[in-house]
């Protein structure tokens, strides 16, 4: 029987950053947002607590092998393979990985849809952006918890990455989800098209390095070569640099 999942973010309180919300609204440079936009964004940020239902869980998985462009993870009595040019570089010193799943829940998405149906497009866009900022913050909070626990055991954590980063096919999201699927307490589902519900949900992974340090949160941007990214915090350099 599969183990039940505990919500590691129960009681978590969001501290949303206005600039992050503006980024998700399409403002790569938040300073260019005009006062009416700022007003709408602030109004929806103030409503965030109405829709807050943060959820997060993690599963530690043994790392069974590393090749040039793939890694092998233990899944029950079998192994699964993740194919990526970057993962072997990131995990070259890791003994295991921790797979992370975070969700902002469905309330915020449904509220944004309701605003759109009422013709309130500006408010709907802002609230949808609040939902995106929520799940990003939830994932960071979950990663911080895992990193603190790893440090107490004498381990460092690698950069957090997920399917869709440069060199890692988005389809592997379905493989990561297997480590959670079927467990009691899981509020997230995945469709055949590998899309998660609630929409504001994210999968990620960190490696555990013996005696290592926690990688800076900003560094995942190094692994993504997406051009004109609104959320970029650091230039792309690749995992091996």
Largest beta sheet: what is the strand line-up? 3-2-1-4-8-5
Low-confidence stretches: none
Percent of residues in helices: 25-40%
Radius of gyration: 18 Å
What does the overall shape look like?
globular
Largest sheet: 6 strands, antiparallel
Structural class: alpha+beta
Helix and strand run? HHHEEEHEHHEHEEE
Tally of alpha and pi helices:
7
| Annotation, overall tally of beta strands | 8
Please state the average pLDDT score: 90
Strand content: 15-25%
Distance between the termini: 43 Å
Structure explained in plain terms:
The chain is α+β, with helices and mostly antiparallel strands. The protein contains seven helices and eight strands; from the N terminus they run αααβββαβααβαβββ. The strands form two sheets. It has a six-stranded antiparallel sheet with strand order 3-2-1-4-8-5. Strand 6 and strand 7 form a beta hairpin. Helix 5 runs antiparallel to helix 6. The longest helix has 32 residues, at 121-152. The radius of gyration is 18 Å and the shape is globular. 39% of the residues are buried. The model has no long low-confidence stretch (mean pLDDT 90).
């Amino acid at each position: 029987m599969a183990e039940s999942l505990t919500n590691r973010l129960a009681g978590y309180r969001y501290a949303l950053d206005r600039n992050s919300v503006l980024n998700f609204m399409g403002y790569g440079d938040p300073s260019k947002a005009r006062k009416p936009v700022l007003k709408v964004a602030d109004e929806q940020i103030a409503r965030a607590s109405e829709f807050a239902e943060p959820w997060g869980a993690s599963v530690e998985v043994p790392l069974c092998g590393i090749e040039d462009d793939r890694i092998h993870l233990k899944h029950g009595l079998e192994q699964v393979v993740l194919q990526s040019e970057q993962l072997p570089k990131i995990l070259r010193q890791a003994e295991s990985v921790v797979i992370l799943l975070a969700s902002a829940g469905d309330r915020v998405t449904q509220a944004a849809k309701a605003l759109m149906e009422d013709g309130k497009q500006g408010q709907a866009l802002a609230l949808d952006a609040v939902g995106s900022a929520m799940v990003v913050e939830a994932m960071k909070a979950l990663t911080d918890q895992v990193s603190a626990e790893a440090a107490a055991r004498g381990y460092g954590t690698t950069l957090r990455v997920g399917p869709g980063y440069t060199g890692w096919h988005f389809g592997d999201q379905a493989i990561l989800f297997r480590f959670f699927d079927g467990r009691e307490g899981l509020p997230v589902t995945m469709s055949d098209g590998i899309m998660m519900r609630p929409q504001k949900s994210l999968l990620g992974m960190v490696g555990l390095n013996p005696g290592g340090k926690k990688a800076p949160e900003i560094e995942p941007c190094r692994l993504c070569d997406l051009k004109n990214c609104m959320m970029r915090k650091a230039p792309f350099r690749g995992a091996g640099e």
